[in-house]
Amino acid sequence: MKILALLGSPRKNGNSQTLFDTVIAGIEETTSCTVESIYLHGLNDLQPCRGCGGCEKTGMCVIKDDMIEIYDTIDAADLIFAVTPVYFYGPSAQLKTCIDRCQARWSRKYLLKQRVRRDEKRRGFLLATAATKGAKVFDASMLIAKSFFDTIDVDYGGELVIRSVDEKKALAGNEEDLECARQFGRDIAAELS
Hints:
Layout: E1 2-7, H1 15-28, E2 34-39, H2 55-58, H3 67-76, E3 79-87, E4 90-91, H4 93-100, H5 103-111, E5 123-129, H6 139-151, E6 155-162, H7 175-192
Parallel strand pairs: 1-2, 1-3, 3-5, 5-6
Antiparallel strand pairs: 3-4
């Protein structure tokens, strides 16, 4: 099983990455997998969508930057995790830029009627952390994730969201949330076996 993490935090080894690493540990308890993590903030060249419509004719983005390789990696993955801290009630700019650039996949699917890779076991998950306790703090991120996964022909598998983690290592010291993350991973592995 090929797992892809689109890591949206500008802060390496922060709470959202800890959340992802813990979910993967739960999956790996019973399932073997290959994990590829793309640290979006660390890319040299990931430009925002220009809204130019160039992809409407070919299904390919006209911008030739780091996203070109990400498209192929997304297409090959069995499980995709959109991993992000929440800023102003939405995903990070890094993750949102990557998602926006999947407009080319939307054009391919809906305008050109070319499916990317349909597989009933492909799943996409949102993993998100937030500093606040707001009841609706994750709503926009969940809606964006569901639309993203639909566009790339991946069934939405759900989300794991953690509130009240602000400091860089806040989640690492919270065993209750970490166990919840491990169990989330175990449940994913059990569903796919």
